[in-house]
Amino acid sequence: MSRTAAPSLFADSPSSSSSSWVTAHCDGGARGNPGPAGYGAVLTGANGEPLAELSEFLGFRTNNFAEYSGLLGVLDYALEHGYRRLKVVSDSELMVKQIQGKYKVNSPDLKPLWQEAKSRIAKLDAFEISHALRHKNKDADRLANEAMDRGMKRPHAPGQPAPTPLKATPYPAKSSAPPNPDARPAASNAGTMLRGFTRDGVVHVLGGKTLPDGVFVKIIPE
Length: 222
What we know:
Helices cover 23% and strands 24% of the residues. The protein is α/β, with parallel strands linked by helices. It has 2 domains: 144 residues, 2-Layer Sandwich (Nucleotidyltransferase, domain 5), CATH 3.30.420; 47 residues, no CATH class. Strands 1-4-3-2-5-6 form a 6-stranded mixed sheet. Helix 1 packs parallel to helix 3. It starts with 7 loop residues before the first strand and ends in a 17-residue tail after the last strand. The N terminus is likely disordered.
């Protein structure tokens, strides 16, 4: 899966980037856990000057997957733009302590992300990561929520440009839902398992699929 964000870029000076520290505040979240997920990040230069804002919708994922995606996003940006010294601030205590080596990575879904993050960190000259409470990570949190809003095709605020809808990523096979014990085989499509989420009493089906009029659906919490 591509983790390239659609950043809003500000003034950038790669010529002096190799010796300057860059600070990145990143955040990720999922509505439902798992659910529609996204991450956001704000990168600033050594003097606090804005460098970039990253915001990406990730599809149907978990909170921890989104947090790691935010870290990978800022690492990718730093490497692509020649920034060799990076400080990362995140409100995910789990991810921070796993990267620091204080917690083990037991999840088979997170292990590849952790390995990729460590691989990218090894390409930097210097790296630091620290934990901060959510209220000190407001801008990154806002961008993560904007990414989720885009993915869920929420109405945009009056006077603001319409967000670009993004297609959801298929749900990870390792975390597939349990079989529906009530599904009965039939000649039609009865019993077909679709994945989605509910909001304001409305069923939203992921993967671009639609439900025909008049069908009955059974909601199975995950």
